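Quick illustration, no need to memorize.
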Amino acid sequence: MEATWLDSNSWLIELGGRRILIDPWLVGELVFGQQAWLFKGDHPQPRSLPDKVDLILLSQGLEDHAHPPTLKALDKAIPVVGSASAAKVAQSLGFTQVTALAHGERFTLADSVTIQAVPGSPIGPTTVENGYILRDAATGHSLFYEPHGFHAPSLKNEGPIDVVITPVLDLALPLVGPIIRGQKGALELTDWLQPQIILPTADAGEVQYSGFLISLLKAIGGAEALQSALKAKGLATQVLQPQVGQTLNLDLRSAAVPLN
């Protein structure tokens, strides 16, 4: 298994000989509802689109996960799997092979990788978006991805899982509460799934954020704090901190080794 962090929530995962692009925001600004005064994200350095992508996997329909400018730039023949709201975005942009997965449903990619949707982040009063469990059909190696740190207790039945991609930083808004559940969510996942490796997501590597909302966000924790908490609990799970664009060879018999 190989993993490349492309900043924010964007990942390129190589599993079962397939290249899976997760929640890509790689080109253009990130703005919600055309309200740049409220929140805007920028890539100071242009990021190239990865080649030979076998599948695009989208956890949510919001712009930071199903990013319209990036999706417009990608080949519309690439298969897309996503939550119901994310699938609607992909279909509206012209993708020709789009599968919406409800919680508990599975998709198989070229008989090599199975993708199972599980409950993820609540968005508004009625919508719960997707997390995903990916498994290599040949080796059994597994990965869990959910970008906001919200998980249903039913996930306890899915472990152990080798690699977990989850936020490790708490972000909260006054009067609203946590919008990203990092430390508690990561510790919860470690208890439930017993991963060998945690890869932090939802952090800012090179991207820059601006807008009124940024001044209100309160951030707590981080990778070092999580590693200390895991050590205090006597857990051997390793928290890695990849650099943007760095590919990690996740040798699940030992520590991950940077490839570049």
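The chain is about 15% helix and 35% strand.
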